[in-house]
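Example (one chain per record):
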Amino acid sequence: MITDMDITKLKGVFALQADMQHGFREVGERFDQMDEKVDTIASAVGRIENAIDGLAGAIQDLRTENGAGTAHLLRHDRQIEALAVATKITLSH
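Predicted structure:
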């Protein structure tokens, strides 16, 4: 038969319900802290993504503007060449 001494020894070896609840509470608090940290990181990453999107848009705008400028310069070059031929002027390159 199990004696009171045996029960006392078993209580010292195994976790009691109160001990388990305390442990679960600590784990829950740690998860809450981790959730807060993850939310902070997610917010920072969101801001970085927005900044990168803005930069990508600005780069695309510059590419479009450069393409239009190149077309404009090529058109002027053709017009200058046509004027040079029509007026019999030799252009130096």
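Caption: The longest helix spans residues 17-86.
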